[in-house]
Amino acid sequence: MMKIRSTICPSELEHTVEKGKVPKKSGHHDHIDPTAGSTRIVWAVVINILLTVVQIVGGILSGSLALIADAIHNLSDALSLGLALFARIVARRPADDTMTFGYGRAEIVAALINYTTLILLGLFLTYEAILRLFDPKDVDGWSVVIIAAFALGVDTLTALLTYALSKSSMNIRAAFLHNVADALGSVAVIVAGTVIILYDWRLIDPLITLVIAGYILWQAITEIGGSVRILMLGSPPDLDTQAVLAAMRGVSGVENVHHLHLWQMQEHQSALNAHIVIKQGIWNEADHVKETVKAALRDGFGLSHITLELERHGHDCDDVQVVGHISAPN
Predict the structure, then answer these.
(1) pLDDT (tens digit, 9 = 90+) per residue, 255-290?
(2) Predicted confidence (pLDDT) per residue in 42-51, tens digit
(3) Structural domain of residue 93, as residue ranges?
């Protein structure tokens, strides 16, 4: 069996971009500068830690579970932002003998941890709120409103510090969504404090806590799938695997395609690995066919890392399957 391995090198990709051959169908954002925004994240961490202290003290003094819930969420914000910053630093490390693809997935792992933390937090707050429904506590409405209003200002500032970065990074987006949830939570707490002041309805406090917890759970559950998909080597959600196969098979000189693997190396870098069988009688044109396939994948789907194994007609693999490969027996 005669086979030739080929891969697109970073220099080839840069050359393509310089010529203006921007991928036509890729839904990915451009990569952000990994060094950008670190100072903003540090400030966001410091601000959220200070706010957590203020809210916990205020929640204890006022007797408000909703305010303490918001404080705990703020603490998770600080931790998530710190984790996001650490992951960004790790992700800058170049590939080495141990991590041959580099450390970019550190940010995906951080996002998964942050979303998992949000889910656990939401469940904890739900449990505490249900207990408080059956045993309402006295709450100082004015203290709740004042501290929650202060928290809303801090949450808004923190969200603004991370908003621009969240557009291009799943890791930062997870931390940013923490802050958005907190800002909405602060609004809900202000409403609760106002109702207590006006009507002395203490059940509003655990009810608002349930609303905050429900939003946190919805937010985390809907977002966690993206990080899991990447870590499980799933295909990019904006690419149709069958369309990719059709484009490869449509190249003149390609007889068949099998052992296709399509995955996200990182959030903004997709990769493909496949075997292509060259039609009978044109093996001397195999290199041209290979480059044509690469161009179709690069320009049509925005794939940045392509590895192709060429096989001559009559010497292709046995027991093949189109997508993936057949595992060796135990």
Answers:
(1) 889 999 998 887 778 899 999 999 988 999 999 999
(2) 877 787 788 7
(3) 38-231
Going by C-alpha positions, the residue among 224, 191, 196, 221 that lies closest to residue 208 is 191
Q: Domain tally for the chain?
A: 2
H helix or E strand, kind and range, residue 322: none
Long-range Cβ contact pairs of 289-292 (< 8 A, separation 24 or more):
289/251, 289/252, 289/253, 289/254, 290/4, 290/6, 292/251, 292/252, 292/253
- The model carries a pTM of 0.68
CA distance 298 to 311: 21
DSSP notation for 53-84: HHHHHHHHHHT-HHHHHHHHHHHHHHHHHHHH
Contacts of 195 (CB under 8 A, 6+ apart): 141, 201, 204
Residue 50, domain member (yes or no): yes
Which of 195, 212, 231 marks a domain boundary? 231
